[in-house]
């Protein structure tokens, strides 16, 4: 098993709770993140129609109605938001899993590979574990090899569940990944010696 030698946060970057005034910056991260990550995987007209102003309104509504959802952002010293991630209860009622679901993690394209995504994911997995969640699930596009490698390096594994959704009239396939957040209850192979 290999471990990254990259610091947990890019130099000068902090991960903090999202605030309502971050909605426009988060919308830009999400739109630009989708347009970059899903180029060639989703219909280009669908990606081209994504609008930061419209997305800002959606982010604001989601933020105000967030319930148990946790939103965090990565921020540079000058206040620039470079990434966003959120986690919460499983969205599907028939998920069949304990734990929680990572809904989203997006980085500005020019910050991919800087450790920003790892920092956001580390923050949310630590919070979920501290809240007592035994595992974290997420959905990723089947054809999104870079994202799948990112999650696999972070300890997530596909569990066999698959789903589809419509994007711009095209059916898109997703696979579910799951990562344990707590150590399994390991018992010794042999009983302890009688004393």
UniProtKB/TrEMBL annotation:
<dbReference type="InterPro" id="IPR000182">
    <property type="entry name" value="GNAT_dom"/>
</dbReference>
<dbReference type="InterPro" id="IPR050276">
    <property type="entry name" value="MshD_Acetyltransferase"/>
</dbReference>
<feature type="domain" description="N-acetyltransferase">
    <location>
        <begin position="13"/>
        <end position="182"/>
    </location>
</feature>
<dbReference type="Pfam" id="PF00583">
    <property type="entry name" value="Acetyltransf_1"/>
</dbReference>
<dbReference type="InterPro" id="IPR016181">
    <property type="entry name" value="Acyl_CoA_acyltransferase"/>
</dbReference>
<protein>
    <submittedName>
        <fullName>GNAT family N-acetyltransferase</fullName>
    </submittedName>
</protein>
